[in-house]
Write a structure and sequence with these properties.
Blueprint lengths: L8 E3 L2 E3 L14 H25 L4 E5 L5 H8 L3 E6 L4 H6 L7 E3 L14 E7 L18 H15 E12 L5 E2 L10 H10 L2 E2 L11 H7 L5 E5 L16 H9 L13 E8 L1
Parallel strand pairs: 2-5, 3-4, 3-6, 4-5, 6-7
Antiparallel strand pairs: 1-2, 7-11, 8-9, 10-11
Helix pairs in contact: 1-2
Length: 278
């Protein structure tokens, strides 16, 4: 196991650096969504995450925003030294599945403090999470300082990665005008809301502020730190279950055969940034 910081307390058997009473800030995970994640994340782990981890020759792995914890458990079963962190509301799902409490920890999304020493992990990934960091509701209502919160959050993940290790940051692309994974930004215009209602998918402008993010945001958040970033395809990770049915096959084809030079552009619906710490 990797070197941990001294934990402040344990809540329901799971450790945390949070001091005092831990309250539920918001509960953005329904039981229905949790069970969907338990099933779907096994396939995503085996078809996408695990091959990439092996490619990076990583042995110790952290899932930041691990949700119901399925990916961490699958990676552990594959022989990896795997850990996960998330909100206290997710603890009940870790308990129900009988996961090892030494591998799961509670964190504060507004002040992320990971329970690991500096430069201890080979690989960390956070998928579909950063767009909800710095929001008041865990969804799409941006706080005035959301960029600052996200920068602090991403730098904390960077801190625990070994030099030469990797971070994988993924989520829908702010520069692409369609988002099938979320509802609209809380400050969406009337036109955006109308187009969203008509299309069955969230339509948003590709300029200005939005709770979604883009490759350029990562460069801003990690400014001044030594790293190299490479855009990755999301083939094998995105299943298009929320894409309106008539467009699913076309969407899959579009993603599967996207040229490499387009991955880091506004033509790509997803950001999937593999960052190597220098």
């Amino acid at each position: 196991m990797v070197a941990l910081k001294t934990l402040e307390q344990k809540v329901n058997g799971f450790g945390t650096l949070i001091q005092g009473e831990i309250t539920e800030l918001f509960n953005s995970t329904t039981d229905e969504y949790a069970f969907e994640q338990m099933a779907g994340n096994i396939d995503k782990t085996r078809s996408y995450i695990l091959p990439l981890i092996k490619q990076c020759q990583a042995k110790s792995v952290l899932d930041v925003g691990c949700g119901v914890g399925t990916m961490v458990n699958e990676l552990f079963k594959e022989g990896l030294d795997a850990y996960g962190v998330d909100l206290i509301t997710l603890g009940k799902y870790w308990q129900e599945q009988g996961f090892d409490p030494e591998r799961y920890f509670f964190v504060d999304p507004y002040n992320l403090q990971l329970p690991f020493q500096d430069n201890t992990l080979d690989f960390a990934f956070t998928l579909g999470v950063i767009e909800h960091i710095g929001t008041s509701d865990g969804h799409a209502d941006r706080l005035p300082n959301y960029h600052e919160i996200r920068a602090t959050w991403l730098k904390e993940i960077y801190r625990v990665i070994k030099p030469g290790g990797y971070m994988l940051i993924g989520g829908p692309n702010r520069k692409f005008p369609v988002d099938t994974a979320h509802g609209p930004d809380s400050k969406a215009s009337k036109l955006e809301l109308k187009l969203t209602k008509l299309s069955g998918a969230t339509i948003h402008k590709t300029w200005g502020e939005n709770f979604l993010w883009a490759y350029s945001d990562i460069d801003n958040y990690l400014s001044g730190l030594p790293y190299e970033m490479r855009a990755q395809s999301v083939k094998g990770y995105v299943y298009f279950s929320r894409v309106p049915k008539p467009f699913r096959l076309l969407s899959k084809w579009y993603i599967d055969f996207m040229p490499k030079f387009m991955l880091k552009t506004g033509f790509n619906p997803w950001v999937m940034a593999l960052i190597q710490k220098k």
